[in-house]
Design a protein that fits this description.
It is built from 19 helices and nine strands. It is mainly α and 584 residues long. The strands form three sheets. Strands 1-2-4-3 form a four-stranded mixed β-sheet. Strands 7-8-9 form a three-stranded antiparallel β-sheet.
Length: 584
């Protein structure tokens, strides 16, 4: 391990964790030791008499009970499966250049090479121990021996497999080969401290306790089993609290030792590469929230997310003057060239991203199909707008909102119907009951009272319609269907889900639906087309140019009931709101 200060601190903390384990074992053996002493005293004639006899009968059953409990807890801790991050495994046959680069990096750092490589759809990289028997078949030890140089022939004992190197897939597609090597240097250097027996044993103990807590929290057990699991969970949590501080300090020491060891490898390039890490994170986040999420909600999953993040970051570099220098990097060899089939791996990580961030099914199906970027505008953007517009008109129909005189002679839904409805003052009238579910307690139905400028309105037509839209979306999300794929029951300990956005307000949902209806009218009456912006998601195009200044008019209509700004925008764009539009 060398003489790194971080490694020495990590080893001392690992010993502290192991001392907690030893103390727990000593506490479990203490009643048995007392029982042995009492039995030995009786056999030698030194501890005799009614008192000692009663003590033996009290201590021996208690000692047996404690030993049984300790054995059961130890068995649960040893056999419980530790949580594993969901990743896409990369075989050496599918990425020989990547494995060669990692092995060369490990040789330069004088540390064991990782046992395998996997990808994760996130902007992060780390080492993960998967040596637990439940994590894979024993046959993988041969591959681990091959990569680490250990020998297992002639009955000799194999060296424990090194951790698995997990690499963020956006790094492979956005970074250049040299930048990726510089970023991975401190990560790969962590295999050195991880190979120390004390640190490895301490990590196994902590992971076992954490897995035991997860096992004890599993629901759906019989009452007797729940009682036993509750006891196991309490003991495991007590031990975790006792060694938690030492374990965290141990990991900090390991990280410090790895960083110190990696100082001599591509240090200058690593400073530049760290800038690319932040840029990749920003582009990946915007791509997921503004481009991938609408497709996932429509039952489609983009199959080239990693290629999309390159397009998004290239667009960001073009727009941002501070990022102009990054565009020149695109002429260098990208790290994804280290893969034999980058398209297939991109598709696998894209499907995993949909599972993690949206909860989609594990495999494609009739209601969960991939979509290419060139088909995204027609298959996702157009369908999303028309679905939202159809939902809006369906709710208006359920509310009994009749067509206005302007549109009474047309067949099909129109934008003018929505504009007139939201611009009409709230009160008794067609399609809006004077009192009902939308009327709050204590609200008067008198239009004169509504016109009082001194009293703020408690409700508007926009409020009522927004509440209905939010309720309808909630109902659709809880019912199975193509628009909301039913996710399998994930194990929260091994496959957590990460929601991308906080819940949106009802007014925001209404604004989205009104915008969707405007876009449908633009496509059907003014020749506009759906488009994709890598940073902003779905956009409306007029002759290939992005439409602008639509949001202020929609917000004015939704928030204030004033359609003037939006009608002016429609007139300038050549959109005829009285014409019917096609919905899904």
């Amino acid at each position: 391990m060398g003489v790194e200060a971080g490694a020495q601190a990590a080893r001392s903390r690992a010993l502290a964790v192991l001392r907690v384990r030893s103390r727990a074992l000593a506490v479990a053996l203490l009643p048995a030791a007392v029982g042995v002493i009492l039995l030995a005293g009786a056999s030698t004639g030194r501890l005799v008499g009614p008192g000692w006899h009663a003590a033996r009968w009290a201590v021996l059953p208690f000692a047996a009970l404690v030993l049984l409990a300790a054995a059961g807890i130890s068995l649960v801790v040893a056999r419980a499966r530790p949580a594993v991050s969901p990743t896409v495994p990369i075989a050496e046959e599918s990425a020989p250049d990547l494995y060669r680069m990692v092995r060369d990096l490990a040789d330069r750092l004088d540390v064991p090479a990782p046992s395998a490589i996997a990808l994760t759809p996130d902007c992060d990289s780390w080492l993960e121990d998967r040596t637990h028997p439940a994590h894979g078949p024993p046959a993988r030890a041969d591959r681990a021996d091959e990569l680490t140089g250990a020998s297992g022939s002639n009955g000799t004992r194999r060296t424990p497999a090194a951790p698995v190197l997990v690499i963020g897939s956006p790094f492979l597609w956005w970074m250049r080969v040299g930048e990726l090597r510089a970023v991975l240097a401190p990560v790969v250097a962590g295999t050195g401290p991880s190979a120390h027996p004390d640190i490895a044993a301490a990590r196994r103990f902590v992971r076992g306790l954490d897995a035991a807590v997860a096992v004890s929290s599993t629901s759906g057990r019989c009452p007797a089993t729940r009682v036993v699991c509750a006891g196991v969970g309490r003991v495991a949590r007590l031990l975790l609290r006792s060694c938690g501080e030492h374990a965290s300090q141990m990991e900090r020491g390991v990280a410090a030792a790895a960083a110190e060891r990696a100082q001599a490898v591509d240090y200058g390039l690593r400073i530049v590469a760290q800038e690319q890490v932040g840029l990749a994170y920003a582009g990946w986040d915007r791509l997921l929230t503004r481009v991938a999420l609408p497709a996932w909600r429509m039952g489609r999953w983009p199959s080239r997310l990693d290629a999309g993040v390159v397009a998004a970051l290239t667009e960001l570099s073009r727009r941002d003057r501070l990022a102009e220098g990054f565009a020149s990097r695109l002429g260098e060899r990208p790290a994804c060239d280290l893969l034999e089939e980058p398209g297939a791996i991109d598709e696998a990580t894209s499907l995993l991203a949909a599972r993690l961030f949206h909860g989609g099914p594990a495999e494609p199906g009739p209601d969960w199909t991939p979509v290419d970027w060139q088909d995204y505008p027609e298959e996702v953007v157009d369908r999303k707008w028309r679905t939202d517009a159809a939902r809006l008109h369906r709710i208006l129909g359920d509310e009994g909102v009749s067509r206005t005189p302007e549109t009474s002679g047309t067949d099909g839904p129109t934008l003018a119907r929505i504009l007139d409805h939201l611009a009409t003052p709230y009160g008794p009238g067609p399609g809006t009951p004077a009192a009902g579910p939308a009327t709050r307690a204590g609200r008067t139905a008198d239009p004169a009272a509504e016109a009082d400028p001194e009293e703020p309105r408690a409700d508007t037509r926009a409020d009522h319609l927004a509440a209905r839209i939010a309720a309808e979306l909630a109902r659709e999300e809880t019912s199975p269907g193509p628009a909301a794929p039913t996710a399998p029951p994930w194990d929260p300990g091994t496959l957590p889900l990460f929601p991308l956005q906080p819940p949106r307000t009802a007014r925001e949902l209404l604004a989205d639906h009104v915008t969707a209806m405007v876009c449908c009218a633009a496509m059907d009456t003014a020749g506009a087309t759906p488009g994709l912006d890598w940073l902003d998601g779905p956009v409306l195009l007029f002759d290939g140019d992005r439409a602008t200044d639509l949001a202020p008019g929609v917000l004015s209509l939704v928030e204030d009931g004033d359609p003037t700004s939006l009608r002016h925008w429609l007139a300038q764009a050549g959109i005829r709101p009285e014409k019917p539009v096609r919905l899904v």
